[in-house]
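User: We ran a pulldown and think these components assemble together. Before we commit to crystallization trials, I'd like a predicted model of the whole complex to look at. Sequences follow.
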Amino acid sequence: MGTVVSIELADDLPAARLTALIESTCAWLHEVDARFSTYKEDSEVCRFRSGALPLDDCSADLRHVLDRCADLWRDTDGYFDAYAGGPLDPSGYVKGWSVEVASQRLAAAGSTRHYIGAGGDIRMRGDRPWRVGVRHPWKADKLAWVLSVTEGAVATSGTYERGAHVWNPVAGRPATGLRSVTVVGPDLAVADAYATAALAMGEPGLSWLAKRVADGYESAAVTDDGRAFTSAGLPVAT
Amino acid sequence: MRRSTAAAVGTLTGAALILGVRLSVQPPAVPVAAAAPVDAGGEPDAESTGEPAPAGTKKPSGKKTGAPSADDEKKKEEEAGLKAGTYKGKAVQNQYGTIQVTIKVGDGKITSADATYPTDGFSGTINPKAVQALSSATLEEQSADVEAVSGATFTSQSYVTSLQAALDKAGA
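Assistant: Here's a predicted model for the assembly, 410 residues in total across the polymer chains.
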């Protein structure tokens, strides 16, 4: 996926146990990369989209990913689109989902306090809040918000990294209007998809984000001209 | 499509809430109001997909012929000697529209209860959790002490220059 993953385990466990947990997490993420990469011709995703692998023979994981991409396409009015670039590319869902699964597995293996960050999107669990900064959309070394999240996900999408390469799949042109969108909620893959979709929508994404609060997803967004917007329940650290 | 389904469910849920409030001040109707939702919820969902639609589209009234389960309430009804017929409650106007409750009585028991509720208009006005717009805030510029940083970091090059990378380095 070409993404850097940061894993922080803050559990009071023996060093060997922590190392084993990190190793199994990395093994899972590498497995996901091998199976879902759109760059590796022998990956399951590539074999499925070339027609070599029929849907019925796909793994339960891939079918789950395809189902969820379809759900999110509907939920986002088409702005989250695994086919935006032409051929199937579910990476936008796979990244968040693989981290969700990794965090679930860590919890099942006895980790009570950890976070996994992948490409600036973070899934955390804990017995007390984590302090999570949201990058300032113009200054890489500054924060625009500091959030307090005990259990859940924080995902940020921004045009500041890819410039005009953030695509509006509905209008068929580069997205404009919003500089960055951060979504906070229970599931990282959903939060990531929502942030990506709102960014693609541009300013209309602000009112769309407001409606996601009812599903449990809070948000913060910055427009191209530097106006900042937050939902009422955004867990800002005090 | 999914969103419109959710809106419809919101309407019914909102209406059910209003009904509950309204009926609770009319003693004879209480048992029915309490029984109907339980009855609807107790039925196995038509599909196991977990979609809210099947449960939500069920008529909350349900033609329930059995009396409410509680014996006390049963006695009360018999003592009251309910006369067979159809009774309409007073039409009540509230901020969401007009609501009118109708009950049918047969064999001294309430055999059905139904209510009209506003079906037009925007469901958000009925749903107690109305949509609130994002509020405008000042874009801040802080360098507070944090444990993780969320930001759009698409390339490994942008990771190298990110605050998260600095945090990872400090923790390593």
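Chain B has seven helices and six strands. That may be worth checking against your pulldown data before setting up trials.

User: Thanks, that helps.
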